[in-house]
Amino acid sequence: MGHRIVTYFFMLQLNGALTIGTMDGANVEMAEEMGEENMFIFGMNVDEVERLQCSGYEAEDYVNSNVELAEVMEQLKSGFFSDGDASEFQDIVDNLLKHDRFYTLADYDAYMLAQDHVNETYRVRNITYSINYLLRYFILSISYTRLYQNNDNLFFRILHCGQKCPS
Length: 167
Hints:
The structure is a single chain. By secondary structure, the chain is mainly α. It has 3 domains: 1-41, no CATH class; 58-99, no CATH class; 109-167. It has 8 helices and 2 strands. It has a two-stranded parallel ribbon. Strand 1, helix 2 and strand 2 (40-41) form a beta-alpha-beta unit. Helix 1 (2-14) packs across helix 2. It is globular, with a radius of gyration of 27 Å.
């Protein structure tokens, strides 16, 4: 199954997708194949996870020490994202606060920094692509116009002659 996931992500990247993730699962294989510098890796490494396991992971500590994260968790609890239905995301809240074996909240700050980097890269890349396409269009249109206006040009004669082209 892992090979299919990696293939799927490669196909997404060929189409311009930016990959963000922790260094586990399929991301390890992808980083080996295409280089970690071509991905946006965030979060704890293996040693940091082991230290956190030894010292004890308390999800509430991360919520209480980060105003933005506390606000998100409160919005999930209050029904802000579900038209006032406070129970809609309760399972997610409970999992994050009581049963999170992936230490998701410990990686929140690192994720937000990585996401900012992704956003900036995407913005710059889109600007670059837009400029590139505009320049191509501009150059091609000028080239074609000049080519078309030059009646002595062989290309013009081939395109606009009848059955026989003058030599």
